[in-house]
Amino acid sequence: MNKVLLLFLCLMRGLIGVNTFCQCIGYEPLIINASDSQLSASSKHSNKHAAPYSKWTELGWAPNQRVGSWIEVDLLENKLIGGIVTWGRGSNDTVPQWVKSFNVKYRVDGSNDWNNYTDTGGSLLTFIGNEERYQPVVNDFEVSIVARYIRLYPLSWNNGPTMRWEVLGCAQYAQSHVNRYLHQEAETCAITSENCMLATNNRILLNYKGLITQSNTTNLVLNGESLSCNNNFMTIGVEIGMLGCAVEYNMCEMNDANGDGKCHVLCELKDWQVGQPFNLLLLIKGGSDMELCAVEIDLRPWKPGRSVIRDWDYFLQNI
Ligand SMILES: *[C@@H]1O[C@H](CO)[C@@H](O)[C@H](O)[C@H]1NC(C)=O
Ligand SMILES: *[C@@H]1O[C@H](CO)[C@@H](O)[C@H](O)[C@H]1NC(C)=O
Ligand SMILES: *[C@@H]1O[C@H](CO)[C@@H](O)[C@H](O)[C@H]1NC(C)=O
Ligand SMILES: *[C@@H]1O[C@H](CO)[C@@H](O)[C@H](O)[C@H]1NC(C)=O
C-alpha cells in the first residue's frame, strides 16, 4: 500500500503546538468474525448461499439474479479500509465458480449516500477478481477509504457469481506527532491558504517524530507562498543519531523541479531506519515573504509486491 499522508499545518496560540496524526501500519480481516446480521445481499440463490456464507471459511454467497447483484457488510462503525480480498466458491461440490471482476461502493455512518470507489478519472473502478476457485486475490486500495458499509457488485464471473470475501481494516496505527515552535503568536487554526505560517522575522521549526516507512527514501512536498527551495532558507533532515549532546541529521535534497512554486524534498533513510520510527526536522529560517501552508509526506508502510495472502495463519500472526 502506498499511502500519502497530508499533514496540514495550522497555527495555534502559544509557542508549541502538538499535532497528532495516524498512519496505518497493519490491517486485519473484518468479515471473518462478523455476525450474520452484519452481512446482507440483494438476493440469495438458496439458503446455503445466503450472505453470511460469504466468509472465507464457508461455501460462498450466490445471488439468484446474476446481473446487478451486490453483497454488503456493515462494519458497525466507520473504519479505515485498505483493501479487499476475494475467493471463489468454497467447495468443489459443483462446477467451479468465482467472480472475475467487481465494483465497490461504500457509505459512511449516518449517511444515505453511496460513494463509488473510483479510478483517478472518477469512473467506477473495476477490480480484478479471481482466476480460480481457491486462490485468494487481494486488491490493495490505492486510496484508503473510511466507511461503515461496503458493497461489492460482481461484474463478471466463471459459471456463476459465487464468492467469498474479506475486507481489510486498519488494526494498528503508528502514532507520530509534530512539535511546532513558533516565535510569533497567531490565532487561527484552519486549513486555508490565508492562514499559512509566515516566516518573516520568525522561524518555523517542525519536528516530526515516529514516522514509519518501508522505503529507503521519503518525499516531501512543501506548499506555500514565495518559498525559496534552497538550503539558505530551509533545512530538512532525518535524525540519524546523537553525537555527544548534538543530534545528527542526514540532510535532505531540495529543489523546485516542477517550477510550480512547491519545494520537492528527497530524504534518504539509513537501512536500519526502514520500517522503524524515525524523526524528521524541518527548519525555515525565513525570507521576506515566505509562507508555509502545507507539508505532504509520502510514506510507504508496505513493501511493494505484497498483494496475495497465501497463508492466513501467517497473515493473522503478522498483522
Ligand atoms: C476471530 O475470533 C476468534 C475467536 O474469538 C479469534 O481467535 C480470532 O483472533 C478472531 N480473528 C480476528 C481476525 O479478529
Ligand atoms: C474436493 O475437495 C475435497 C476437500 O477439499 C477433496 O478432499 C476432494 O479430493 C476434492 N474432490 C475433487 C474431485 O477434486
Ligand atoms: C456512481 O456510479 C454510477 C454508475 O457509474 C453513477 O450513475 C452514479 O452517479 C455514481 N455515484 C456517485 C455518487 O458519483
Ligand atoms: C534503496 O533501495 C533500493 C531497492 O529497494 C536499492 O536499490 C537502493 O540501493 C537503496 N538505496 C540506498 C541509498 O540504500
UniProtKB/TrEMBL annotation:
<feature type="domain" description="F5/8 type C">
    <location>
        <begin position="20"/>
        <end position="170"/>
    </location>
</feature>
<dbReference type="GO" id="GO:0038023">
    <property type="term" value="F:signaling receptor activity"/>
</dbReference>
<dbReference type="GO" id="GO:0007155">
    <property type="term" value="P:cell adhesion"/>
</dbReference>
<dbReference type="GO" id="GO:0012505">
    <property type="term" value="C:endomembrane system"/>
</dbReference>
<dbReference type="Pfam" id="PF00754">
    <property type="entry name" value="F5_F8_type_C"/>
</dbReference>
<keyword id="KW-0130">Cell adhesion</keyword>
<keyword id="KW-0472">Membrane</keyword>
<keyword id="KW-1015">Disulfide bond</keyword>
<dbReference type="InterPro" id="IPR008979">
    <property type="entry name" value="Galactose-bd-like_sf"/>
</dbReference>
<keyword id="KW-0964">Secreted</keyword>
<keyword id="KW-0732">Signal</keyword>
<protein>
    <recommendedName>
        <fullName>F5/8 type C domain-containing protein</fullName>
    </recommendedName>
</protein>
<dbReference type="InterPro" id="IPR000421">
    <property type="entry name" value="FA58C"/>
</dbReference>
<dbReference type="InterPro" id="IPR050633">
    <property type="entry name" value="Neuropilin_MCO_CoagFactor"/>
</dbReference>
<feature type="signal peptide">
    <location>
        <begin position="1"/>
        <end position="17"/>
    </location>
</feature>
<dbReference type="GO" id="GO:0005886">
    <property type="term" value="C:plasma membrane"/>
</dbReference>
<dbReference type="GO" id="GO:0005576">
    <property type="term" value="C:extracellular region"/>
</dbReference>
